[in-house]
Amino acid sequence: MRSTIFAKIESATAALKTKAPMPEYDVTLTHSLPKLEGSDLWEIFSRNFKAVNGKPMDSVTQVADFLKSTNQLHGYCDPALFDAIGAKLVAAGLTVETVYDRSRYDDYQFGITRASGAIAETGSVIIDDDRTSSRLAALSPWVHVAVLERREIHRAMSDALAALGDSPNIIWCTGPSKTADVEGILIEGVHGPGEQIVLLV
Q1: What structural domains does the chain harbor?
Q2: Helices (H) then strands (E): counts for the chain
Q3: 160-196 pLDDT per residue, tens
Q4: Over 70: is that where the pLDDT of 17 sits?
Q5: Of 29, 39, 45, 86, which sees the most CB atoms within 10 A?
């Protein structure tokens, strides 16, 4: 019986496994030229990221100082980033784990994961299942530190869309999570991190 049900589901969703091709459009019509002023993608991204209350940083010392100043002293770090980032945070007096225990999600005040990219035009961080070691570690702690390489910054949304590939779960984070559902009052940190940091490496 179970195999019959799953076979029917598989048959009904077979078409979803093939990604629809991108429609053709004039990308220049979708660009926000004022947001793209400048030539250095990190500077453009930083300006637009700050506009949505993100915090661009370019040193682990900045991250450690921020975490200590806000009393966010215990968190998770992608094991692949531990030597370059996590060990320096430990040396600065923070507690860092390299295994994210889902049953203790409330214990993690910060999460450090790789970004799959960023969009300079919108100040958005891209995370996905291919490069982000733990989506829960990126979305559950109050502070998320997305580690980004300069070559992964896309100039505009159209460039990011063309480069995203076939990852089934892609999330664009444009600053801290926020909502204005209740009486039009903007509240940050409701459905995810209240502080979004991008660390350029």
Answers
A1: 39-200 (3.40.50.10420)
A2: 6, 12
A3: 888 877 777 888 899 888 888 777 888 877 777 899 9
A4: no
A5: 45
